[in-house]
Amino acid sequence: MTRLLPFVVDPRDLRNYRRALHEALNGGDAIAPLTDAGAPGETDVPAGVALVVSTSGSTGRPKRAMLTAGNLRASATATHERLGGPGQWLLPMPPQHIAGTQVLIRSIVAGTEPVGLGRFGTDEFVRATAELTGERRYTSLVPTQLVRLLDSDALTALRSYDAILLGGAASAPALLQRAADAGVRVHTTYGMSETAGGCVYDGVPLEGTTVELNDDRITLRGNTVALGYLGEPELTTEVFDTEGGFRTGDLGRFADGRLQVLGRADDLINTGGMKVAPRLVEDALSHLPQVRETVVLGTDHPEWGQVVSAAVVARSPITLAGIRETLAADLPPYALPRRLLVLDKLPLRGPGKPDRLALRTSDQWQDWMTPPVAEP
């Protein structure tokens, strides 16, 4: 067994956390990154575990994934191989989550000094980018951060990166096209705490990772998959297998040989017996010029069970009637949004995932009152 020590992470001072990670990778005590000192004290974990990191809780209560030093090093090495070699990293997100921690792990493996932001802001991002001195420069963002940077005066800073990893939430095709048109080198990532972060880039697994689809449900398998959840043997047995596989609970399909993630099976919207994948509606909405960001989910309805509901951060005035009229050529009638929530910004949790519970329970939804035609 290995001793597990809680470690309170200060986003303004990454050196101590980086030092603790370095020791854990080299056989020292395992650490559990926290944001406050009120967490449980030390305990024991299986030998080889270097990091116990909480999941974001976006799919329920947070769990604590046990990652070995081998998991973490394999992830960092495979990332650098895919991106073209080691480099210097900028950390613009919370360091205690797996995406932030992996920026530090990659820096340790590469032997480079990362630059961190105490808090994210477009001006802070530009200033921190100017501090980078490495020949190759990388950073990791969530979609909301990229949207804000593209909307600001940060384009020169964004273009200076050899690669920007984009993950934590769904990336709208329109956002990716906008970044590409601006000369920003973005790579979408798919992964989670249980896989030591992203292990599929641009729909293609990293070295050492394989993707399996069983009834459209994604299983990730390889050398970055965690040993299981701390203190939860039954749940570990349910979602991890003995051959290095993790059953994600996400739905996916292969398109032109690349994995396309459709979202969580639990998030499928059942409206009058018809199943709607929120990701497909989000992709359609993202092409509307009025839409800056969007999240689609199912909200309860007394007659249909659920209805397709779109939360939108808008660039210009937008109406539910206008959305439905515009998207009618791209979506079947039952997939058109029947509720709209216009926000100044999306509620987020964890490293940048939309807070679907907060959206679902909002009392500000606008309803489409016209009786459905050719709908369930």
- Identify the CATH homologous superfamily of the largest domain: ANL, N-terminal domain
Q: Please give the number of β-strands.
A: 25
Sheet/helix structural class: alpha/beta
In round numbers, the mean pLDDT is 92
Order of the strands making up the biggest sheet: 7-6-8-9-10-11-12
* Shape annotation: globular
Model regions low in confidence, pLDDT < 50 over at least 5 residues:
370-376
> What's the CATH topology name of the largest domain?
Rossmann fold
Number of helical segments with 4 or more residues: 11
* Total number of domains: 2
Tell me, what is the CATH class of the largest domain?
Answer: Alpha Beta
Portion in helices:
25-40%
Any guess at the CATH architecture of the largest domain?
Answer: 3-Layer(aba) Sandwich
How large is the share of residues in beta strands?
Answer: 25-35%
> What's the Cα radius of gyration?
21 Å
CA(first)-CA(last) distance:
56 Å
Q: For the report, how would you describe the main beta sheet?
A: 7 strands, mixed
